Amino acid sequence: MQLDTVLIKVASRCNINCSYCYVYNQGDTSWQRMPKHMSFEIVEDVIRQLATLYRDQDHPFAVVLHGGEPLLLPRNILEALLKGLADCLPATCSRSIQTNGTLIDDDLLELCVRTGTTLSVSIDGPADVHDTFRIAFNGGGTYARAAAGIARLRQHPRADLLFTGTLCVVDPQSDPCRVYEFFKSLAVPSVDFLFKDGNYAKLPLGKRTVESTEYGRWLAAVWDCYVQDPDPPRIRILDDLGRLLLGGASVKEGCGQTMYGIVVIDTDGTVTKNDTLKSMFDGADRFEKIWSVSTDRLSEIADSREFIQYSHLQNPTSPICRACPLLSVCGGGMPLSRWHPETGLHNPSVYCADYKLLIGHIQETLQEFR
Q1: Which domains does the chain have, with CATH numbers?
Q2: Sign of the four-CA dihedral 337, 341, 343, 344
């Protein structure tokens, strides 16, 4: 396996408390046993291992700083990490920070400019939509601080290089066209709409049954706004599904049948699986073998039988999926959404009905354009 994405958990805590968060509010407790943030020593090991990884595989990969909230990492340690990555990796290895936006300041933006680091901000829509789930520990909303962070980012002279876009977790109870127009009003370069995490043991918030299509209908309405807009922002999931229907490929896991090499590095340097697996059960993202950037080479981890078996989790095993004509497009969805406590991952996604509705709707529109 080649690694495509290295997600670095530089902070294991967050300064807000999103009710749908797969890290803190889906049953996983591993974060409680992690250091609150990476140390200088682990940062040095990360830099060394990523430089070695690039030499070993001679193939670019994306580096994403994540958390918790990555901007809780003390600024001097963050500066050492970003400068080290800029020095040891070519520009083809992108470096980005996924942040909730509440801690963005001018010094951070200047550091990102100097080190070629980009930012993506998580925001779920207008204030009433965003503040339904993305709340502070005192129960109050966080929209005003996130919006202020985005405004500061957009006003920077190098915003075109710094700001890659936004991540939005879908609330199917919201008005999809209003949410789309909200992102247009922010002039964001892209929006990555994500379904809420859930599975057969615990359905995603807002989904009534496995057969219901709340999320599919919501994104189908966004698609209609998207294709009628002469100057739209990029929407990754819609772009991926459209490309796949036209014979192209996806650019991220979650649809299509391309396998992606994804690895996570925790604050103590432990190497783990895709962290979204946390929402299945406590410890679902852990390898049986304990690897660390302090002692193990990432390319050798990616070559191991256990890592390759983990990567194959992206491919659905359910006979229903294997026989479905839409498999090449939906790819079975995210592994975490196939989880059942009795049958493991040997099931269609709980979002199967949503994908069928959405893909069918996009397909009809593309046929009209031909």
Answers
A1: 5-369 (3.20.20.70)
A2: positive
